[in-house]
Amino acid sequence: MPESPEVQALVDELETTLRGRTVAAVDVVEFRVTKTRSRPLTTLVGERVLAVTRHGKLFAVELDGSELLVVSLGRHGWARWGAGETDAAGGAADAADAAAHADAGEAAEPPPPTLAALEFDDGVVLELTDAGGWVSLGCWVVDEANEVAAVAKHGPDPADPAFTRAEFDRAVAGRRKQLKAILQEQESLAGIGNAYSDEILFAARLSPVVHAATLADDELARLFEATVGTIRDAIEARRGIPIDRLKAAKVEAMQVHGRAGEPCPGECGGEIRDFTFASTTAQYCPDCQTGGEILPLKAGETE
Questions:
Q1: Which of 42, 121, 204, 286 keeps 20 to 30 A from 233, CA to CA?
Q2: Residues in domain FPG-type (predicted)?
């Protein structure tokens, strides 16, 4: 699932490439991506892009007709360039990926299907894709971003330079809820998902399943610093990476997420383990985070 660091890098590239360009055509391949049926994506034809902004894990394309195209990437959505100058780099990257897989004797994964595409006046095409078995990508044409419920309910964003310790404490302190659940709750803190919540909790050396209400003052302070530091450092690290490389860059940068069975990157000498959380799999270091306790892989199971 795309999270704020990768979505911010996507937004930066879209802003640089699309600002000032005019929408020439819209092709909606999968009708379910359109969430505002009375305002279809085709109403954007003829409008010029003024800016592209991020709202948690969503982004918005601001157009000169006083409209916004708000896009939720959902669990498996992303964007790619389909034509024009920007396609040269993307095409070369795809070819390099295919060659690398061939050299390794692996079958290259087929590219995810395009569910909607916007063509601009100079031939550049922005394709919105979804790699999931069900449609998680969503698009809205609205006057203000807050008309989209997922944006309106957002809590404060730790990536925002104005984000404060007081806002963090209001979202977290004293709550009888597991830390990992709070970090992923968009109404509490915007932009964090499964991967970065794992990274934050490892950086803070805190158990993902402990309740926030049990944290001592120094632990809460540590969690605040880890949240802000992890997200902002990741945004800086992704800056300038082409959008077709962002997923790989995210995976490569993870210290514990997706690293089950590997040695802990800390100094404990332990091993990263999986555990089941909210119908998905997450990772942690028992020695660094849970005092050696092994969290369940699934109900009633610890090994």
A1: 286
A2: 255-290
